[in-house]
Amino acid sequence: MSDNPIISITGLSRRFRMGAGDFTALHDINLTFKEGEFAGLVGPSGSGKTTLLNIIGSLDIPSEGEAIVLGKSVATLSHKESAMLRNIHIGFVFQTYNLLPVYTVFENVEFALLLQKKNAAERKKAVMEALEWVGLTDKERSRPAQLSGGECQRVAIARAMVKRPSLVLADEPSANLDAQNSHHIVQTMKRLNRELKTTFIFATHDEKVMKYLDRIITLIDGRVDKDVFVESSKN
Amino acid sequence: MIALKLAFRNLFGAGLRTWLNVFVLSFAFVIIVFVNGMLDGWNRQAYNDTKDWVAGNGQLWHAAYDPYDPFCLQDAHAPVTGKISGLVKSGQITPVLITQASIFPGGGMQNILLRGIDTAQRIIRIPSASLKASGEGIPAVVGKRMAAAAKLKKGDRVLMQWRDKNGTFDAKEIYIAEIFSANVPSIDNGQVWISLHELQKITGLENQATLFVAGGQYAGGDVDNWVFRDLKFLMKDIDAVMAAKKSGTSMVYILLLALALLAIFDTQVLSVFRRQKEIGTYIALGMTRGRVVGIFTAEGTVISILAIIAGFIYGIPLLMLIQKTGIPMPGSVDDYGLAISDKIFPYYSIGLMMSTVVLVIISATIVSYLPARRISKINPTEALKGKIQ
Q1: Which ipTM value was assigned to this complex?
Q2: Cβ(A139)–Cβ(A147) below 8 Å
Q3: Do B10 and A107 touch (CB under 8 A)?
Q4: What is the mean pLDDT of chain B?
Q5: Is A115 within 8 Å of B285 when comparing Cβ atoms?
Q6: Are A168 and A198 in contact (CB under 8 A)?
């Protein structure tokens, strides 16, 4: 892990309008993530994990405070700039995989590279490499409906990793998986974190995932309750 | 380009939904081409028939002549002298004298327009050679509509009464030398054609004419007091009827196109709602909202392109077959008052095809864009969860 901060969050709050009043999902969050971290935001449902992840991923903006991701302040980015940030530097892994159902595994993984306007040869090489990381080279022509949940999530990991992003944000990646598949996909991400030095940030309340994390940030009612660095993790 | 590529992928992946839209739109495309081809074919046929049978390459009218006013015929004639005589002799124009008369077929009386035409003329297709005298009575030719209305057959004899130039009644028997079949009612209904020389003789209007029909050699322009009416002028009735027919029939295909476009619009509205997660995913993967709008809009464009391809595949053989065999027209369409043959042969021009292709693509793109605009207001975090109502 490098000492370079990749994400710097200061005094961040996020409020949502709820009827006549406001609901505060995040209160005064101050966090820094370094390059190559394998960290997790943990806590019960409604604690603000996904909201924080969305802000880091420039899918949302803070109501107060600042979130600087890869040197860019999320709140000040235009739609185009935040799209560019996500397209080049950030990979997403979702609880429900969010694969594009009409595309094959290859096409799903290839998608991000299409947006980067890479040529066909470059795309093919990168996609096959990403599928190799997750052990799905034999499924490149399958469609998501033909895959198991674990396989779908591995495709989602390949899609997030194919562009070699600096940061991968995984929102409850194991929530729809059985224990064996949960271990498998987290192990895969852990391996990629070590080999490619990619920073991973999870939002999870799954104990199985937590065992692999190097840093556990506990959120309760939108506030940071604990921020613990784990000395050594499994695998 | 990426939007089109992704739109193709999405549509081919969507299967039946895509092909239903493609089929409905392709059907509308083929019908639009067919209906317009029918009208264009009808127009061309009416134009050519009117030119061949009536108008030639234009006409030179006596200044007082008005085809819609039969009472003008009393004065609308003048001697064929001077420059105009030279044109007649050189065969560039042929004179026609028109007067009112009555015939008495089967004991009843029927008012007619009596037209005299040079028996040697070849400018219009009236079978004037049959008007050469060969026995008792005045040889006359009539069209099939006139023959049917007066119950006349070839060889029949019928009494005809007319006034000469002094207003004196005279009568003589005519015999039907030939019945011609023309698609132009204006030279047929209520018209009897006899030799120009004979008409000039019986009316005392020696060497006089009401109008001249110009052949291909005539360059156009007024001559002395004779006013030149070009084809544009002579065809204005056809153009007016065609314009009216076109606006009427265009309602049919506009409705059909609207139904097809409604299907696309409906699919797009449903898509924007049902494919929220997909939209959220596109944005999360780094697409701008504008680009996502572009994909959804391009899907409509691609449907229209596929519809046109499908329309060409099954429509061209069908349309060509119809073009070869023609569409029979009911007898009642004669009432429109312009040249209509028994069969209409559609005419499909490149311009018609291209304008229909452009119309279908642009309208499909617009109806796809309208619901897709909503994407630009979608919150990606809500879309990713599929929570937007």
Answers
A1: 0.91
A2: yes
A3: no
A4: 88
A5: yes
A6: yes
